[in-house]
Write a structure and sequence with these properties.
Rossmann fold, 3-stranded parallel beta sheet, 10 helices, 7-stranded parallel beta sheet, 18% strand
């Protein structure tokens, strides 16, 4: 396949994961030798998150009998992916840290700092890299809103847990956040956090076309946690999350946008920077250190 890609230089590649190891080997070879946006088609029994780890940018579920709506949605994704500038990937081993001790909360104020992360295209791999560099023993829970196809959020949480060694799960309505735990926004609902750290999921209308909405999560964290809120916007297309990140900064919290050089798509972070929402603009590898420093200061 690599030879075909090198000769034809396609704008985007679609791979069926039912090809098994051949598909994964193709992704690894293409991203190492001729980086090209890749979308993978998955069915039950395939492993789309392994494909994302190797450099694929997006995924779609392949129905048993694809209809016109499926092909129309796939076409939209391919048009967007064809505009993405991708970089060469070299896959290496990641450090994995385990354990989940945490400090007791102080009554009368937000009981702990809270990290909220927004991501879209290119986000799963960026999240895995970022979280793998974070200590498991930390006083701040982490809430994530990742734009991803409906039905994949549970798989994303499980994959992140395996890749990073952390406790990762889909958020559940009404549960209280726990330091050391990572929460992923479920499909088809908005993920919000109320004081003093209670999860609220709702199926309200999409915000700027998204449900879950990054702005909804970040804005709720700004309101509930104020100066103890820490917001991060990672790689992604569009502008979802910029207003929410600005809300965190306006309420005294700390904010970071991923820099252009380390982004797959410098869309969401760019909008946050233009809005004045980001206190710091950092490469992906420098974000964990800033988060750990701020958690201590909060």
């Amino acid at each position: 396949m690599l030879e075909v890609v090198q000769e034809s230089r396609p704008d985007v590649i679609v791979l069926d994961l039912r090809a098994g190891d051949a598909a994964f080997n193709a992704i690894e070879a293409v991203m190492a030798e001729r980086p090209t946006p890749i979308l993978v088609l998955q069915q039950p029994g395939t492993d789309p998150f392994r494909a994302l780890a190797l450099g694929a940018l997006d995924m779609s579920e392949l129905p048993a009998q694809p209809n016109d709506a499926f092909w129309a949605e796939l076409a939209k994704k391919l048009v967007l992916l064809a505009q993405v500038r991708v970089v060469q990937h070299v896959r290496g081993k990641r450090n994995r840290r385990r354990g989940h001790d945490h400090e007791p909360a102080d009554p009368g104020e937000p009981p702990f700092p809270l990290i909220a992360i927004a991501a879209s295209l290119g986000g799963p791999k960026a999240l895995a890299q970022l979280l793998a560099m974070m200590p498991a023993q930390r006083v701040a829970p982490i809430c994530i809103c990742q734009h991803i196809s409906d039905g994949f959020t549970g798989g994303l949480a499980n994959w992140l847990a395996v890749e990073t060694g952390h406790r990762v799960a889909e958020a559940k309505d009404g549960e209280f956040l726990e330091p050391g735990q990572i929460y992923v926004a479920p499909s088809r609902v908005h993920f919000r956090v109320d004081f003093p750290g209670r999860v609220r999921l709702d199926a309200g209308p999409p915000i700027q076309g998204f449900r879950p909405s990054c702005d909804a999560l970040l804005d709720s964290v700004a309101t509930a946690f104020g100066k103890r809120a820490i917001g991060v916007i990672l790689t992604g297309m569009g502008k979802d999350g910029a207003l929410g990140l600005r809300a965190i900064r306006d309420r005294g919290g700390r904010t970071i946008a991923q820099d252009e050089a380390s982004c797959v798509v410098y869309g969401m972070p760019r909008e946050a920077v233009l809005l004045g929402a980001a206190q710091e603009v950092l490469s992906l590898e420098k974000i964990p250190m800033a988060l750990m420093r701020w958690v201590v200061e909060c």
